[in-house]
Amino acid sequence: MERVPTGITELDVKLSGGYPKGKGLLVTGVSGAGKTIFGLHLLYRSCVDGKECVLIATEETPEDIFVQAEMIGLDLAKYYDNGQLIIGRVFESRSNKSRQVTKYGFAQEGLEVELSQLADYVPDSTSIAVIDNIGVFTLRSTAQDFRDQFDALNFTLNKKGCTTMFIMDESAYLMTNQVADYSVYGSVRLLVKENPYTDRVERYFTIPKMRSTNVMPDLTVFEITPEGIRLKTKTD
Ligand SMILES: Nc1ncnc2c1ncn2[C@@H]1O[C@H](COP(=O)(O)OP(=O)(O)OP(=O)(O)O)[C@@H](O)[C@H]1O
Ligand SMILES: [Mg+2]
């Protein structure tokens, strides 16, 4: 199976070279766990490798995203400027809608984007897409509606041959009974908890599922540093 480097060297080693190419991958975890940063690593590495990338951002402006990338030493703005990275501004459509509702007391039709329609933001030539965060599409839907829409989106992006990272916030993930896990090829779960041996609160990730990949579902401690995500080994 072909692999896509994750942008995190030690994670590539764990995953036999990277994320499975052309497949859907889910990243979940509480706020501040590092989900967006996992996405930024994948985008940056893919841009460096000359791939066409798309980021669909539902909660942050491109400017916020570039600042966040810079905080971990990644100059992502450069690839936005040269056109290699496209940013879908679903965030702005949502904000426009809220403004419209406030001003006119109703929402103008056509501004609302459905989860399955996000594929329209991804040109056929795209190699890598990161969608951050699909959780906003669960607010008015049942777990079944969400799963149908998510399966449709996943199917369309798979057909395009696009490797896609779906980022989903913890509360939406739990509210939809964790069904998102079933639709994807692989799943990475981020946790923040106290280490009983050191009494320090640390960030962890676990890979409960990664088809075609020999990976243990154990917990790995990681840190977010000015150079990005660093996995901690037992000797650290
Ligand atoms: N250079 C850095 N050094 C240390 N920590 C950093 C650095 N840059 C960012 N962080 C930490 O990373 C965390 C944010 O990670 P990230 O934005 O990926 O979380 P998230 O899971 O996407 O959260 P949310 O669900 O709120 O979007 C922040 O809490 C911040 O403290
Ligand atoms: Mg985030």
What does this structure look like?
The protein has 236 residues and is an alpha/beta fold. The chain has one domain (22-231): Rossmann fold, CATH 3.40.50.300. Helix content is 33%, strand content 26%. The strands form 2 sheets. It has a 9-stranded mixed β-sheet. The protein has a two-stranded antiparallel ribbon with strand order 1-2. The model is unreliable at 107-111 (pLDDT under 50). The protein binds adenosine-5'-triphosphate and magnesium ion (MG).
Overall strand count:
11
**pLDDT averaged over residues:** 91
Name of the top-level CATH class: Alpha Beta
Content of β-strand: 25-35%
Second rung of CATH, namely the architecture: 3-Layer(aba) Sandwich
Report the helical percentage. Answer: 25-40%
Return the domain count.
Answer: 1
The secondary structure category is alpha/beta
Give the biggest sheet.
9 strands, mixed
Report the uncertain regions: 107-111
| Distinct small molecules bound, one entry per kind | adenosine-5'-triphosphate, magnesium ion
Name the CATH superfamily assignment: P-loop containing nucleotide triphosphate hydrolases
Overall shape: it is globular
How would you write the strand order of the largest sheet?
5-4-6-7-3-8-9-10-11
CATH domain fold name: Rossmann fold
Distance between the termini: 32 Å
Please write the string of helix (H) and strand (E) elements.
EHEEHEHHEHEHEHHEEEE
Q: Report the radius of gyration as a whole number of Å.
A: 18 Å
Count up the helices: 8
